[in-house]
Amino acid sequence: MRIRINGTHFPLETLGPGRRLGVWFQGCPLACAGCMSRHTWAPEGGRESSVRELLDLWREALDKGAQGLTVSGGEPLEQAPALAEFLAGAALLRGAHERAGGVAHGTRADFLVYTGYEEEEWDPPRTRALRHADAVVAGRFRVAEPTALVWRGSANQRLLPRTALGRIRYAPHLRRRATGPAVQVVVEAGRKPGAAPVAHLLGVPARGELGFYERWLAERGLRLKGRSWRP
Ligand code: SF4
């Protein structure tokens, strides 16, 4: 099945516990004021991929000791059938990996999905897409409601464990405040010859932190031409 994504990264260490594979879906109609990921809004942006390609990445990540998979966006539930197929395939690979004796650090890899849709907005296709999610961070980003809670961008967003694994893995984090770096900086060469490099800020920055990273990158000779958090 085809799937539109903005990008992937391993190891991701700022959206969920441990070292994870991050997959960012492309396309979001919710247009939250203050969203730091405006580059993921256009449904025709990013690049076309396939569930098969993402499952290959997940298999490689498991072989490298991945402790989880985080799906964010954009809005993953805008591509609910593809998300459902991807997570079902990822669960099968996780099981096969465990049967082969490859459980990372003695704990099962978990699946965390970010969605701007509140639980009440999950229609049957969206609910089916989240069947294999061990935990979900749900709710619009509200710029006027800051929070220090780890992995959440605003105080209204809820971290919802949905499976036995999710309840165990996320119980210590439900009320935990963020400590340590909330953002991981990844600089990638331009995708076309001669194109400028792209800096990705992965994670949920605290208020004011984006300006800090702009200055941090400038000190290292990277002056930002466009910023995904500005119109
Ligand atoms: S914060 Fe999330 S849900 Fe809101 S517009 Fe941005 S990508 Fe969409």
Automatic annotation (TrEMBL):
The keyword Iron-sulfur applies. Keywords: 4Fe-4S, Iron, Iron-sulfur, Metal-binding, S-adenosyl-L-methionine. Gene3D superfamilies: Aldolase class I. It comes from the Bacteria. Transmembrane segments: none annotated. Its cofactor is [4Fe-4S] cluster. One of its GO terms (molecular function) is metal ion binding. InterPro entries: Aldolase_TIM (IPR013785), Organic_radical-activating (IPR034457), rSAM (IPR007197), rSAM_sf (IPR058240). Coiled coil: none annotated. Pfam families: Fer4_12. PANTHER family: ANAEROBIC RIBONUCLEOSIDE-TRIPHOSPHATE REDUCTASE-ACTIVATING PROTEIN, PYRUVATE FORMATE-LYASE-ACTIVATING ENZYME. This is Radical activating enzyme. It comes from Streptomyces albireticuli.
